[in-house]
Design brief:
The structure holds two protein chains of two kinds. Chain A has eight helices and 21 strands. Chain A is α/β, with parallel strands linked by helices. By secondary structure, chain B is of the alpha+beta class. Chain B has one domain (17-88): Orthogonal Bundle (Arc Repressor Mutant, subunit A), CATH 1.10.10.10. Helices cover 52% and strands 14% of the residues of chain B. Chain B has a three-stranded antiparallel β-sheet. In chain B, α2 (18-37) crosses α4 (56-69). In chain B, 26% of the residues are buried. The chains are: A alpha/beta, B alpha+beta. Chain A binds chain B through residues 118, 121-124, 132-136, 154-161, 164-165, 167, 170, 172-175, 211, 228-231, 233-240, 283, 328, and chain B through 1-2, 5-11, 14, 16, 20-21, 23-24, 27-28, 31, 44-46, 49, 56-57, 60-65, 67-70, 74, 77, 81-84.
């Protein structure tokens, strides 16, 4: 097994749940892994979720032990705030790549005391709370980040130096620069995840213009213990909502926005959020506007039935337009598919069940070879029935939502398949020697 | 405490954009305005909107931000269970 500096068995691109699962499976059987994560923390999107469907288990409680295990594993080297590029296939079991570690301006000795955060006079929108609240330019990304090390958002820093003055552990280092390193690897697993559909594209829904139209991820953040507000509130005026609507298929199954496929998770995460909202706001009415409810997984249909039984109203309706009343309430104009009539309903908060899109970052990571996309721009599975993690490049595998929309258990299953295929690829070469 | 400051190094190679400077100034002004308005006692966001000349969504965003930064804390909810009040956090 590779053990010299810059030599690894497997490059895992992406530190979300699929990347972690792949890395752990392979590291546990002795392979040396380099995990490259573009964000400041590993954990992917799952670490930001409240609960998972249909069991309503705490998402962070499932993912943080895996995050910690990945971070502490002796066979896994993690590079956060880093990118990988120029991946070149020299021959089978022989790849090179360029790792770029971007400066964090804080050393690894940071204790996460947050004194720099307290001292920083700059406030910008917090991307980890989906812009519902501010954060400082010197900041810990989020409370359960791993590594829990501060970072300086240099683009928004006013270079006042207060963070450096107050840091008791002497960890602020503005001399840091990007470091490029050539790495040698034997195989690659793309676990680059997905992107969330940007609903500003559908202007008739008013997202961005009407503050009480939010995305499902913004609602998700409102439902976690580390939420941006003190309760579930409307972002416009801080009112506790009592009549909430969900718009399913926002950016999914919609050719007009270039995404004709189902995102596979929106029906169920909306159903989950509806249940959580009924717990958080017992007096609230929740309405879900849908085209079809797709409750296809184990226990999903029962979960849906339970939600209907709790009083959540499902209306088969297509939303034409959302307008804002003077008091911030929202007028939802929709086609009632059952009756064929155009109707209007008033809600005080609208949640857009935004879909999943391919993360196309992988397309620029390769140098002498093309990692082929499928027709929806996900990493192409060349044999999705018999070898679902194989890609167009031998020795490069795909795990999780990099290959298409799927929920968390399926991402973990997919990572299992990718790690087995990778181990088989590496082992075959070893046996042939 | 460190003797040499690395901030001096980066100051030589980076400049702060006017937009970033303006954003910082804007936050300071909003912060001062909101904290001053809360000096007379706890207020809900609509009550603050009546008192200060800021759009209500800007007030909500910044009250929540000041709450996160530890300058403001949540008070009681009103009788209709609609709006919480917010108050200055007592510094220990």
């Amino acid at each position: 097994m590779s053990d010299q500096t810059n030599n690894y068995d497997v490059l895992v691109v992406g530190g979300g749940i699929a990347g972690e699962e792949t890395a752990l499976n392979l590291a546990n059987i002795g392979y040396k892994i380099i995990m490259v994560e573009k964000d400041l923390s590993i954990g992917g999107k799952m670490i930001h979720l409240s609960k998972v469907f249909p069991t309503l288990d705490c998402s962070a409680c499932i993912t943080t032990p895996k995050v910690s295990e990945t971070a502490r594993h002796p066979n896994i080297s993690i590079f956060t705030n880093s990118e990988v590029g120029e991946i070149e296939k020299i021959s089978e079991n022989n790849f090179t790549a360029i790792l770029t570690q971007k400066p964090r301006y804080v050393t690894e000795d940071c204790t996460g005391c947050q004194l720099c955060e307290e001292a920083c006079p700059v406030s910008v929108e917090d991307q980890f709370q989906y812009e519902l609240v501010g954060r400082k330019a010197a900041y810990i990304p989020f409370s359960i980040a791993n590594p829990r090390i501060a970072a300086i958002d240099i683009e928004n820093c006013i270079l006042c130096g207060l963070c450096e003055k107050v840091c008791p552990a002497d960890c602020i280092d503005f001399t840091q620069e990007a470091i490029k390193t050539k790495i040698n690897i034997k195989s690659v697993v793309m676990a680059t995840g997905y992107q969330i559909f940007d609903p500003t594209i559908i202007t008739r829904y008013g997202f961005g213009k009407f503050k009480n139209v939010v995305t499902a991820m913004q609602m998700e953040r409102q439902l976690v213990p580390t939420r941006p507000f003190n309760a579930v509130l409307r972002p416009k005026d801080g009112k506790m909502p009592d009549n909430i609507a969900y718009v399913l298929c926002t950016g999914s199954r919609d050719d007009t926005v270039g995404n004709p496929i189902c995102s596979q998770v929106c029906c169920m995460y909306s159903t989950k959020q509806a249940q959580l909202l009924m717990g958080a706001l017992p007096m609230a009415d929740v309405t879900i506007y849908y085209i079809h409810v797709r409750a296809f997984g184990k226990g999903f249909c029962e979960f849906y039935n339970q939600t209907v039984g709790m009083g959540v109203e499902y209306i088969k309706g297509k939303i034409g337009k959302i307008d804002e009343a003077e008091n911030g309430d929202l007028i939802v104009r929709y086609e009632d598919i059952e009756s064929g009539k155009v109707k209007e309903a008033k809600h005080d908060l609208v949640v857009l069940a935004t879909g999943i899109l391919a993360n196309r970052d992988y397309q620029s990571m390769f140098k002498n070879i093309v990692l082929e996309p499928d027709k929806f721009n996900y990493v192409k599975q060349v044999n999705d029935l018999s070898s679902p993690s194989k890609t167009s490049i031998g020795g490069v595998f795909v795990a999780g939502t990099a290959s298409g929309p799927m929920d968390i258990p399926d991402s973990i299953l997919s990572a299992g398949a990718a790690s087995a295929e990778t181990a088989s690829y590496l082992r075959r070469a070893y046996n042939e020697k | 405490m460190k003797t040499s400051k690395t901030i001096d190094h980066i100051k030589k190679i980076r400049t702060v954009s006017e937009e970033v400077k303006a954003k910082r100034k804007e936050f300071n002004t909003i912060k001062r305005t909101l904290l001053k308005a809360l000096e007379s006692g706890p207020k809900s966001i609509p009550q603050l909107a009546e008192e200060v000349e800021l759009p209500i969504d800007v007030i909500t965003f910044n009250i929540m931000t000041l709450r996160k930064y530890g300058d403001v804390e949540t008070g009681e909810i009103d009788d209709s269970d609609e709006y919480f009040s917010y108050q200055l956090k007592q510094k220990k």
